Amino acid sequence: MPEFILVAEDDPGQAELVSTYLLREGFEVTVVPDGSAALAVAARRRPDLAILDVMMPGVDGLEVCRRLGGDEGVAVVLLTARSTENDMLLGLYLGADDYVTKPFSPRELVARVRTVLRRTRRQSALAAEQIAVGPVLVWPDRRQVTYAGVPVELTRAEFDILCALARRPELPVSRRQLLESLHGAADYMTERTIDTHVMNLRRKIEPDPQQPRLVQTVYGVGYKLVTPADDL
Predict the structure, then answer these.
(1) Which alpha helices (DSSP H) does the chain contain, by range?
(2) Hey, CA dihedral for 180, 186, 190, 192, is it positive or negative?
(3) Which stretches are transmembrane (predicted)?
(4) Tell me: the pLDDT tens digits for 45-75?
C-alpha cells in the first residue's frame, strides 16, 4: 500500500504544489488547511508522515508536531519561513524529523520525505527486533526483557550485558567484550565489575542463581547465554 502523507498548509497554492509532487511519486496524500484539521485527520488515521507548515492560524505546526511527533509518534517534516537556528532546534526538540525552509524546491521536499521514511522504517525494524534464547526474550531497541513471558526490570548495565550475550547465544563472550558493551561506562569499570553485574543479572532471570542454567561461566574467558537442555 502507498504510504500516507498528511499535509497541513494554509497557503492553497503551496498545498496544491506539494500535493501534486507527492501524488506523482506514488504517495497517498490528504491536505488540510490548519493544525486543528491535521490533528482530526491523524486521530482517525495515523499518517506515515506529516508535512506541517509552522505558521498556521489557530493551532500552529509546532503544536501539531508536539502532539504527533516523538520517539514512537508520526514522522514529521516542518515547512518554515523561519531560518534561525533557535527556531529549527525548537522544531527538532518537539519531535520533528526534518525541516525545509521556504521557499523550497518541491523535488527537494520529496527527497527529504523519502529519506525520513527510510529512516523511520529502519527504526521500526529495529524496534521489532526480538532475540530469543530459551525462556529469555530481548528487544534490544526497546530495551525490554521477559523471562517466561514475565517482564524483567534490569539496570542499564545488566541489560547491555544480557543483550551482548543474547546476540551470541551459546558462544563465550569475554569480560573485556562485555565491558565494551557498557556504553560510556568502560572508562571507570574493570573486568571484575562484570562479575558483579552478572551476579545481579542471574538473580533476576535464573530460577536458582547459585546454579545458573542460562548465564553460564566460561572459566578463564567470560560468560555465555545458553538454552537450558530441558527447553530444547
Answers:
(1) 12-24, 35-44, 61-68, 85-93, 106-128, 156-166, 175-180, 191-205
(2) negative
(3) none
(4) 999 999 999 989 889 999 999 888 754 568 8
User: Which pLDDT score is estimated for 125?
Assistant: 62
User: Phi/psi at 18 (nearest 5 deg)?
Assistant: -60, -45
| CB-count burial class (<10 Å; 0-12, 13-18, 19+) for 192 | exposed
Non-local (6+) Cβ contacts of 200 within 8 A are 155, 158
Please tell me the distance from the alpha carbon of residue 182 to that of residue 175, in angstroms, as a whole number. 11
Q: What is the pTM of this model?
A: 0.57
Q: pLDDT value at position 118?
A: 86
CA dihedral of residues 133, 127, 204, 147 (deg, nearest 10): -50
Compute CA 157 distance to the chain's CA centroid, rounded to the nearest angstrom: 20
Q: Closest by alpha carbon to 160, among 125, 200, 219?
A: 200
- Shortest CA distance to 55 belongs to which of 86, 90, 81, 36? 81
- CB burial string 137-150: b at 16+ within 10 A, e below: bbbbeeeebbbeee
Going by the DSSP 8-state scheme, the letter that residue 230 receives in this structure is G
Question: What is the full DSSP assignment across 79-99?
Answer: EES---HHHHHHHHHTT-SEE
Q: How many CB atoms lie within 10 A of CB 8?
A: 30
Signed CA dihedral, 93, 95, 97, 99: sign only: negative
Copy the grid coordinates of residue 29: 496524500
Residue 179: the pLDDT is 85
All structural domains of the chain: 4-127 (3.40.50.2300), 131-231 (1.10.10.10)
